[in-house]
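#struct-help
A.M.: can someone run this one for me? Single chain, 202 residues.
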Amino acid sequence: PMHLRRGDARAAIAAAPHRLQGTFDVGGQEQFYLEGQISYAIPKEGGGMHVHCSTQHPSEMQHLVAHALQLHAHQVQVECRLMGGGFGGKTTVYLEPVAVALSRKCGRPVKMQLSREEVFRATGPASATRVWVKIGARADGTITAIDFGIMGRIDRRARQWLAEILYGLTTGNYRRVAEIHFEAQYVPSYHSVEEFATALRA
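D.P.: on it. Structure tokens below:
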């Protein structure tokens, strides 16, 4: 497990005049976006590449493609005109390095697109998770302490998943809570989409 602590949340909750606790489960969700994964790489002068793709993070895409192909970041220009839906499912790299590598090899533009079935098989759904939380508050309702955890049945994107939670804890409204304890656990998922995706986001 991974822990993030500020103060002594459990002691503060025990001493709080008002306490609340609960546990809930969220099923996995398939990111059923209208436009699938697609990439169009165009070679430019000086070894540069212009990549048109459907991504929620153009700058991250630029750096990941450059790193994968040992290019400088300024040699990769990423453009996303219309994304056609994403729901968090277009935050990583799938086709782009392959399209760029092929384009560099042949010296011509290369377009790659996954079929709907390939999208389901390659990308993976949002994680099924279990969340537990305990909250302590003053008589006026001000939250003084939070002790919560999350366990996800997730895949290779575990680091990004945890990083997004930690970002929210350190920059969002949680920063106003003096005492906080967060625990994160994840278990690798080797199952097919059909086994644990319970809903479609469309």
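A.M.: thanks! The radius of gyration is 21 Å.
D.P.: also worth noting: The chain has six helices and eleven strands.
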